[in-house]
Amino acid sequence: MSASPPRSLHDLSFIAMESELQAAGVSAHHAKALWRALHFHGAQDLLDQDGFSPPLRRWLASAVGEGKAFFLDEPGVVEESHSSDLLTRKFLLRLRDGHSVETVLMGYDGRYTACVSTQVGCAMGCVFCATGQMGFVRHLRPGEIIAQVLHARRILLASHPQRRLRNLVLMGMGEPLHNYAAVMQALDAISDVRGINIGPSKICISTVGVVPGILRMAEEARPYRLAVSLHGSTEAERAALVPVSKQWNLAELLAACRTYGAITGKRIFVEWTLVAGRNDSLETAARLAELLSGMDVHINLIPLNPTSGFGGTPSTAGHAFQSVLRAAGFPCTLRQRRGIDVAAGCGQLQAAKRLAQ
Ligand code: SAH
Ligand code: SF4
Asked: Is 336 exposed, middle or buried (0-12, 13-18, 19+ CB in 10 A)?
């Protein structure tokens, strides 16, 4: 019989951690100390930690480490860049299998937000998106999502020990609702008050419009915020930018958003990447206002960040587009482009900043 492949300790829910300990003959109540070390202290070397009981310490020595049953998710930094105002720091983090994902730490007005990835690449293929242009490589495990938040928090505490990481947006690489189970398990851990403790209402999931996932979030009463990337006011306009619209069309998506709003009572963020001549006319803005009428939404307009695989250009009509939506009564913000900057180097990042403010 071959030994089962090693697993990540960060992949274990609290209950699963209790069961693992119990199965190894260690009392389940030691899970508290282990969880705290991993998720509150962000420990990278468990044997270095104080306060573990001898049985827990013995189990850790026998079960955790290279060649053993468990490992820790500790992605290494391949590359780091920051905006000229130093308020945004972007990390390319290397996973165990050699793939890399982007994680961002942003700080505005003393409020800090992490922006994390949920997949390597993305299957949704939005034509303007650098991640979509990569195609899908694989889903992230819960531990790999949690580890990005732990990294961002470690970086924050190193420079600002008094500050807390308060907000999280799932706007890095990948489509969170295409990796539903891993994302929800990660968010359960990230919002756990015994650990990282980011409030559920400070966590925002951004989706391209995976309709079953939106409805499932509502049915399961997931306590997180939802952002929907719309980008088009007619089926044709949207499908030209967002190919997945052929699977879940605009009408179905808007119906799902209305159902979500009705069940949860929560305001939805609508994300709109403005591409010159494609979705930035005043007629489009008026149609969008019509489509969203009666819904509790906040619209975020993001001028396109050009990517090598897409010939479109950023819209300059943002203010006029915004005025139409505001006149129709919608709260609507327009992200300003700030020139060549790490922040302007990534479309997702721009959108994420909007939600963090
Ligand atoms: N897959 C999810 C979350 C990651 S993308 C989603 O699509 O919502 C996060 C946001 O960045 C989305 O609103 C997306 O439309 C936007 N975005 C991606 N590439 C962009 C680009 N090149 N310029 C401007 N916004 C972009
Ligand atoms: Fe995927 Fe979001 Fe990029 Fe679309 S915009 S390809 S859904 S990451």
From this structure: exposed
